[in-house]
Design goal:
Blueprint (H helix, E strand, L loop, with lengths): L3 H15 L8 H22 L2 H5 L1 H24 L4 H16 L3 H7 L1
Helix pairs in contact: 1-4, 2-4
């Protein structure tokens, strides 16, 4: 199973092989690429229907491929911003705990 550190290492391996730059000058482009990939995910919803992701193996595969592309750019963005796997893990776990303790029902009732 992939873990966060291994994903960072794999992305760095690809970056070096291709000679790509992951720094703050590339953050905007990586963000736009991520948004473009999210658009491709949205196209699946629009053209095929959300329920087919679960029921049609070909559509599920296409959806999964597009989500992997989203994750590629997501991790590229982290790397451009100089965020380490350790920093990401720390922030993720803190946010997870915060959300675990959040009372969404009370919040939504106020809105």
């Amino acid at each position: 199973m992939l873990d966060i550190e291994k994903i960072f290492k794999l992305r760095e391996e690809l970056r070096k092989k291709k000679g790509w730059v992951y720094d703050m000058t590339q953050l905007k482009d990586q963000t736009l690429n991520l948004v473009g990939e999210l658009g491709e995910v949205t196209d699946i919803y629009k053209k095929k229907g959300v329920e087919k992701i679960e029921t049609d193996p070909a559509i599920k595969k296409h959806f999964t491929e597009e989500m992997v592309d989203v994750m590629f750019y997501y991790f590229n963005m982290l790397m451009c911003a100089g965020i380490s796997p350790e920093e990401f893990e720390k922030e993720f776990l803190e946010k997870h705990q915060e959300v675990m303790n959040r009372d969404f029902k009370a919040k939504w009732e106020k809105e």
